[in-house]
UniProtKB/TrEMBL annotation:
GO terms for molecular function: RNA binding; tRNA pseudouridine(55) synthase activity. The keyword Methyltransferase does not apply. Its EC number is 5.4.99.25. It catalyses: uridine(55) in tRNA = pseudouridine(55) in tRNA; a uridine in tRNA = a pseudouridine in tRNA; a uridine in mRNA = a pseudouridine in mRNA. This is Pseudouridylate synthase TRUB1. Residues 98-247 form the Pseudouridine synthase II N-terminal domain. It comes from Phyllostomus discolor (pale spear-nosed bat).
Amino acid sequence: MAAAESVAAVPSSSLVADTAPVPETAETAAATAATSPATAGPGSEAMVSKAALATKLLSLSGVFAVHKPKGPTSAELLNRLKEKLLAEAGMPSSEWTKRKKQTLKIGHGGTLDSAARGVLVVGIGRGTKMLTSMLSGSKRYIAIGELGKATDTLDSTGKVTEEKPYDKITQEDIEGILQKFTGNIMQVPPLYSALKKDGQRLSTLMKRGEAVEAKPARPVTVYSLSLQRFQPPFFTLDVECGGGFYIRSLVSDIGKALSSCANVLELTRTKQGPFTLEEHALPEDRWTIDDIAQSLEHCSSLLPAELALKKPKPEESSEHVLSCEYITLNEKKGEDDVIKTC
């Protein structure tokens, strides 16, 4: 799913270290690290190590990608990432207290359904300001559709609402209609989505059993669409699309165009903007401060020059460690792609 979001600040939460306060500047941490070994024992060295990690965490800035597995929502995965980083830096969120400084910005740009897997772009520090631009960029998916069954969610997680025969559908039939769904087209979004009515998500209203009207068709772009495999009732698509496009709606519409019905069985986002699943998405065992720092350095060269983070001015450098606001970005009314922060 793809759409943009606006920024809405929530109360800041301070980061409290397990064994030592977070140093106010990188220079303070370095000075402490230089003097502590000569004046203290192993316990103090551990404190210095945690303090240095906390300082490094708060200094991270940019955009990188993680590998989202099937199961958790994008917001849940982001929260898991945040917890791992805070724990490594000795700043468990359970010990946070209300303070205006030493807080962490982290967010994602472009929701993946809980049943989907693949690239999830993450912004940290000043990188959260770059996330909106990631939403409008191209995305690539591998989708496995199932002919003959329609569901209320348009994927395999929903209830079956209709069944139709598919035995006469051929590979040539599918390939012949794909051109209809390529280029600049109109698409009706799914009822189960993050689009809103009266300030509430349509998916939330649907789960409550409330009557929901479909949103009107809206313009979307499909850059490329090809059939990779057909083994009835399953068919595999390779799709590259722009922002605001729903793979679930595409598969459902293809089923209807074939005089049958269809739903998404599996969905993998293989690319978002310049980030690919194989080359850039960090698996969970690499969600460490050092690995993310390296990924940020590597990924900075992938971004267009106008999106590259400018180096902070000298007077901003020390403040950056002290005052990374902790925020949540809420979606714009009527949009579905999500930028979330935890």
